[in-house]
Amino acid sequence: MNIAFLTHYFKSPDSRGDYIKKIAWGLDEKGHNVTVFVTGPWIDFQAIRKLPNYKIFSFSRVFSRVPLIHEISLIPYLKSALSFLKQYDVFCVETHSFIDFLLIFLIKRLYNKPCVFDHHGLTFSIYKRGLDKLSLLKYDALFRFWLSFIEFDRIITHSSYIRGEVKQRYGVNSEVVPHGVDLNRFNPTISGKNVRNSLNIGDAKTLLYVGRLEAHKGLQWLLKTIKLIKNERKDVKIKIIIVGSGRERKNLEMLAKRLNIADIVIFAGRVSEEELPSYYAASDIFVIPSLYEGFGLPILEAQACGSPVIGSDCTAITETIGLGGVVAEPNNEISLKNEMLRLIDDSLTYNELVKKSLENAERYSWQSVIDRIDRILNDVSNENG
What we know:
Elements: E1 2-10, H1 15-29, E2 33-43, H2 45-48, E3 54-56, H3 67-74, H4 78-85, E4 90-93, H5 98-111, E5 115-119, H6 133-147, E6 154-157, H7 160-170, E7 175-176, H8 193-198, E8 205-210, H9 219-232, E9 238-243, H10 249-258, E10 265-269, H11 276-282, E11 285-288, H12 297-304, E12 309-312, H13 317-321, E13 325-328, H14 333-345, H15 347-362, H16 366-383
Parallel strand pairs: 1-2, 1-4, 2-3, 4-5, 5-6, 6-7, 8-9, 8-11, 9-10, 11-12, 12-13
Helix pairs in contact: 1-16, 9-14, 12-15
């Protein structure tokens, strides 16, 4: 079967880019002819060259990096794009881009080819918690507009939470296919000794956060919780490593100084794909205080390395954690502090959660995800055959 993935954005490491990369290679190994068709200027060329096949329908000019201008600039070239895409049997859309939806609309009208939309998740109920309102409103309007013109053969969502959100907001059904976790890269045999040594962690209990540094990720709440523990429990030696970059980094660094905890908070910035598993292995507990996640891949990466997880009891976080961790009330320092200290103080509970973390991660192997995507694409192809 000839399969085309349409996306406006391809980078790695990045949850969407890595997802497409894994699925493309997995389907290729099953004997399908898979091409990733990239329509946007945000391309990691080193990563995309590792795909089995790819086609770039984009421009590298500086002005084209403005999204609307870029998409308008591609419209005169739609005919050549459609001519190229005509050879494919089934299409999977991994984007909210105008140009990709327009292509799918024309493919359905002209060729009547089956199309699957892979919805990575948006939210609308928590704008006041720091999310990018303008982007979300744009994606919401665009998705609602195209749903009125395109009858997708399947819609994939990555968690039961997002499935419910899509059903409630748009009135459409979807099938849950979660992200996978690479159990070869992330596993309990990995050593975190070098990371602990390089960061001078010593024997301190180490918490880890991995992700973007944005307002809705709840890191302000996390730092305030660390302050409480430092004040109340002089007997607990604690360190926290924050891996990632984003618009909130300077604010978070200043907050750590104001709270007088800069000596126990390590801003590691971005780390390489090769180094990341060692950071998980170096930690005792993984913390994800986010106020919104459509899935939460770092949860599984941490669990696969044997780290129990503490997360916010909201959106898809609780669902992804499963039995391999505990949850705290969102934006509540007392609740988060209590869960942290419970895992630090209670070795029996901690060890049980380590076991359950590993078991939970096993449920999300990439092979199981690829098999489910393969079944969906085969089903829609047969239904339209």
